[in-house]
Write a structure and sequence with these properties.
CATH topology of the largest domain: Jelly Rolls
Shape: elongated
Oligomer: single chain
Order of helices and strands: EEEEEEEEEEEEEEEE
Helix content: under 10%
Distance between the termini: 35 Å
CATH architecture of the largest domain: Sandwich
Low-confidence stretches: none
Largest sheet: 7 strands, antiparallel
Strand content: over 45%
Structural class: mainly beta
Amino acid sequence: MPNLPISQLPELTAITSNAEFAVAQAGTTYRVKAGFASSGNLHGAFHSEVDQLILVADTEYAMSASTLDYAEGVTMVDNSKMTVSSGGTYNLQFSSVFNKTQGGTIEFISVWIKVNGTNVPWSNTDVSMANNNELIVAAWNFVLELNAGDYVQLFWSSTTTDMEMVAIPPQSTPTRPGTPSVIMTLTQI
């Protein structure tokens, strides 16, 4: 293609996800798909339809979310590792439904983040429950700087084996959808 002034180039009125751009970085020119060319396009949304249990008190467990809702550039590996294909700033959001299966004393649940298997400093939050069959929803979001290939996991632990993350099947009167035990989303911002 000859060198043309910008005013003589054909106008592009819409960009598809298959469009490609040339991007030069550190002396190398790369071919980049449109889906990865702008911030905010990479995302992953996952959930779990099963109960998740604490088998040993004061032991960490990765939250599992094996059901894919939507994803572009974010994959779920080993049911707990949200892995990004491109570096950038990401918003991690989650919600989980906790249940205490035996009441009587106050017990605690901790929830925190790991990136590439390493605890993220100051990312833990504790919640407490005392009563039997009292559901609590924990929901937070975090902003993280990630590199291509990094993975993010949510971990939890409890001071007792009487805690669980509970999935609730669809219900009636009125008819309503099921409740996942955990929902995880990771969105590039």
